[in-house]
Write a structure and sequence with these properties.
mainly alpha, single chain, disordered N terminus
């Protein structure tokens, strides 16, 4: 169910969206590997079981990347139901690794709690800002594509 009727997407646009979903997924896995290394050098001394953290991090990386891309495309398409569904996946996969650290550690000093809060809230805010920008760009591109010929379209905007 959508707010407004959106025209069906052409196959090239669908293929481009799937490509971006894969790219987001692979970037998420690469970032997860970095975070696993970071956990190994920082929180292992607080009795956090790194293989458990690594499993959660790697298992949530692909769904997190996919959910990010699908939330953006759902919002561009003004499909609130799909945006909410993928938004829930996005929120859960965003906080799961940090929740594991918080629950598994025997003791965490304030600087580690501050780091966990930064990862959850700081990167969460940064992600939300990026999503808003991508949705705006995508909607502008869609509006420009639907505009009558001869009307200028925004420069540098490529739609999803």
């Amino acid at each position: 169910m959508t707010d407004t009727a959106t025209p069906p997407l052409d196959p090239r646009r669908v293929a481009r969206r799937r490509l971006w979903e894969r790219i987001w997924g692979f970037l998420g896995i690469a970032y997860a590997v970095f975070r696993i290394w970071l956990a190994q050098v920082t929180v292992h001394r607080y009795d956090v079981w790194i293989p458990g953290f690594a499993a959660i991090e790697l298992l949530t990386a692909w769904p997190h990347g996919l959910a990010t891309a699908r939330v953006i495309t759902a919002l561009i398409d003004r499909d609130r139901v799909r945006a909410w569904r993928w938004g829930i996946v996005l929120a859960v996969t965003h906080v799961a690794p940090e929740v594991y650290i918080a629950l598994d550690a025997t003791y965490l000093p304030r600087k580690i709690w501050a780091s966990l809060a930064f990862f959850v809230f700081g990167f969460g805010a940064l992600s939300l800002w990026g999503i808003v920008q991508k949705v705006r760009d995508g909607r502008r591109a869609r509006a420009a594509a639907a505009a009558p010929p001869g009307q200028s379209e925004p420069s540098g905007v490529t739609g999803c």
